[in-house]
Structure formats: structure tokens, C-alpha cells
Amino acid sequence: FRSMKDGQPFFMMESSPSNVNWHDVNKLPAPGRQELSAIQAVAHGADSVQYFQWRKSKAGHEKYHGAVVDHCGHENTRVFRDVSRLGGNLKKMSSVVGKYSDSKVAVIYDWENGWAIKHFCGYNNLKRDYALECMKWYEPFMNKGVSVDVISMDKDFSKYDLVIAPFLYMLKDGTIEKIEEYVRNGGNFVTTYLSGVVDTNDMCYLGGFPAGKLKDVFGVWAEETDALPEGMKNSVIYKDKHYDVVHVCDLIHAQGAETLATYEMDFYKGMASLTENTYGNGKAYYAAFRNDDDFRTDFCNDLMEKFGITPDEPISLPEGVTMRKRGDTIFLMNFADEERIVTLPKEYKNIVSGEKNKDNIWSVNTEKEYHEEAKTNEAEVD
Predict the structure, then answer these.
(1) Which of 123, 130, 188, 366 could form a disulfide with 227 if both were Cys (CB 3.0 to 4.6 A apart)?
(2) CA-to-CA dists, residue 161 to 153, 302, 375, angstroms
(3) Gap between the Cα atoms of 31 and 36, Å rounded
(4) What is d(CA 87, CA 239) in angstroms, rounded to the nearest whole number?
């Protein structure tokens, strides 16, 4: 949502302080989880944390949706105490209001492209998840503490060092020219299988895929696309490491591009599966296959090193901890089930507690520790 307004802060108008009612199974968030999700929104640009609903409905479809005040009608509940604690902490974070930091990386997630992907018939109709594919490409940067904007193909690419466009199946008018200009002027662009196939009216481009000038930009021609049933895999080799290929893979010809990885099985064994093409002053990459494991992590780490893309702050993050810098404030958020220790490069001050880190070590609490603290607060309230 931050990216919809070119990085400006936004208001989060509606979130749940507890569970929701529209999943098949609506599990309660553990103590501290609603505060973690609220702080995550603030870290990414929210200038507000607001709830649906204040008081639980007496009737209607959402009468069991989470609320600050439950059907009991009083404030002596875990959820109310959690919200009160969060409110106090948000006051201490008010210095971040109105501030944001620029991102050097963008992932294209485009609604119209998603609709086109959802409704076409062909290749693998069972395993085709555009949103998940975009999230998988976002994840390696998140794990490194690198800020990423999520943009549509309508947005300006020029301010980014790296743009990743997973499954860019449908191209809106002018997108081919935008990509070509961006790469020619020094930008670095990554796309994947089944990209540049149909136009804004969902009509196939004639003359081969990816469409038009993009064949020159990426230096490839995708002749065919293979679909793999559940349980059947291919594999690719990239930098002497083997990665599984699932669900779909393009059979591409490198026409000027350098081959970085090749398929290892089937009649297209030895054909290019990952390419790099120098076009003008920039680089264009085509990943012709889907991998649901660690390929994206290894490849994106290579891209970050190659293009000098660094975390918002030089902090090494343990598994489960994410980081976001907003203005001069660093947010460290622990989504793991255990305590995490973070080594900091210098002395920082905790804006909530007022404490300074000792010996450049910071402990990021777990939900269990939060729950113990919450029970202590409850005893004081009682």
C-alpha cells in the first residue's frame, strides 16, 4: 500500500486486534502477535493503527469477528490489555510519523496481470499462483533486511536499481517500451517463465514470446512451455548446485544472452533455463522455470552482491527476524517461536524502553516472554 502512493506514509484503516471470522478455521493470535503485526505495518509506512471493530457486534455476519471490546462489555480482557499496551508504545514511536525511506528494489505485482493469469486455460491449470510467486521473490530481500517496494507495471521503474517481475504474463500498453528504456539506461530487470505473452486485451502477441522488443532486451526466444504434473520434477544446475523444477518451465533459446543455468532432464536437457543479457547499460534476466525451494534465495543473493544492494542497516538477521528502517528508526521484528539474538554494528537506543544496547547485542523477545509480561501487567491491573 505504501507503494501505491510512491512511498508516502499511509493510514491502516482496518485491522483485527484478535481473530477474524472469514477463514475456514479462525485461530486466535498468540499474545503479542497483534502488536507484532501492527508494528510491522508502522515499520513499513503506516501512520496509524486502527481496528475493525471497536465493540463486537450483537448480530450479523461479523458478530464473531475480533474486537477491542468483547461481548462481555468490559476492559478486563487479554485483547483489551494488548491494545492498551500497543497504544502506549505507539506514542513513544510518534517520531516516525510522516517519514519513509526509499527502496532500491521493486517487485511488480499487478492486479490486472493477476486476473489474466487466473483465467487463462493452458499449461498447468492446477498450480498457478501469481501472488505466491511474487511473495517468493520478495522473501530473499526481506530476510536480508533490504527494503522492497511492491509496484504495478504502471509505476516508474527508473528510481530502482533492480526490478523483479515474476510471471509477467500480460503486458499493459507501453510496458514493453518502459522495460526496454529502463534496462537500456542502466536498470536491472528480472522476469520469469510465461512472461510477455498477451497484451492488455488478453490477446496473444504474434511473432514469438516474450513479445516484440523484449526478445532483444532479454536475448531469448521462448519456443514452448512444458507443464509438469504433481509429483513430476525436472532440475536445473546453477553454479554447480542442483535445484528442483516444478509445475512449469519454458523452453528458451538464448539469442545473445549468456546461459547461467541449464535443464538437466527430459528432451530439453541442456537447454538454457536461466539467462543474463547485457542490453544498453543494464542487465536483463530470464528465469524460465519455477522452483519452490532455495533457488530464488541463492540467485537473489547473487544479484544483491553484483549490484551492491545492501540492507537498510548493516545488521545480520537471524532466521525469523526481519528489519525495516523508517526515517532514523530501525524496527527489528521477531516472527520466530524462540528468542533471537541480534548483533548490532553500533549503539542504539530502544525508543520504547529507553535502554541502550549493551556490547552491541540485542535480544528480540518471543511471544512466550511477552505473555509472561502481560500476565504481570494483568496482576498489577487487578
Answers:
(1) 123
(2) 16, 14, 47
(3) 10
(4) 50
In this structure, what C-alpha cell is assigned to residue 360? 552491541
Q: Which amino acid is at 112?
A: E
| CA–CA gap between residue 300 and residue 284 (Å, rounded) | 14
Nearest 5°: the CA angle 280, 284, 286 is 155
Nearest CA to 215 among 174, 275, 261?
275
**Model pLDDT, residue 264:** 97
Residues of the chain with pLDDT under 70: 365-382
Strands 188-192 and 361-364: unpaired
Q: How far apart, in whole angstroms, are the C-alpha atoms of residue 120 and residue 377?
A: 55
What pLDDT does 369 receive?
54
| Dihedral pair phi/psi, residue 84, rounded to 5° | -65, -45
Instruction: Give the tens place of pLDDT for each residue, 219-232.
Output: 999 999 999 999 99
CA 375, distance to chain mean position in Å, is: 34
The DSSP line for 66-98 is --SB-TT-SS-SHHHHHHHHHHHHHHHTGGGTT
Query: What gap in Å lies between CA 73 and CA 55, rounded to an integer?
Result: 8
Radius of gyration of the chain, Cα coordinates, nearest whole angstrom: 24
pTM score, whole prediction = 0.90
Write down the pLDDT at residue 292. Answer: 80
Q: pLDDT value at position 366? A: 55
Cα–Cα distance measured from residue 166 to residue 188, given in angstroms and rounded to the nearest whole number: 14
Which of 172, 150, 175 has the alpha carbon at shortest distance from 160?
A: 150
What is the rounded CA–CA span in Å between residue 7 and residue 15?
A: 21
Q: Which three cell numbers stand for residue 63?
A: 458478530
Q: Does 34 sit behind a cis peptide bond, omega within 30 degrees of 0 on the bond before it?
A: no
Q: What is the rounded distance in angstroms from the CA atom of residue 67 to the CA atom of residue 54?
A: 5
CB of 275 within 8 A of CB of 259? yes
- The CA-based angle 224-129-310, given to 5 degrees, is 95
Unique residue bearing C-alpha cell 492446477: 126
Strands (E), 3-161: 10-15, 46-51, 105-108, 148-151
- What is the signed CA dihedral for 264, 297, 229, 126, rounded to 10 degrees? -150
